[in-house]
Amino acid sequence: MFGLGTPELLLLCFIVLLLFGKKLPSTMKSLGGSVRSFREGMNEEQKLLPK
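User: That's the sequence. What structure does it adopt?
Assistant: Structure tokens below.
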């Protein structure tokens, strides 16, 4: 995966936690809501298409 091994991924995760630790839960909640909304829109679009 992009030439990253386990140590590099762990270091990257640690840095992200240090930088965004307090904002991370709200950011993930927002991201989840966006994905959910996108999926609902895709499902709605599929219902509108003629078969």
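The mean pLDDT is 87.
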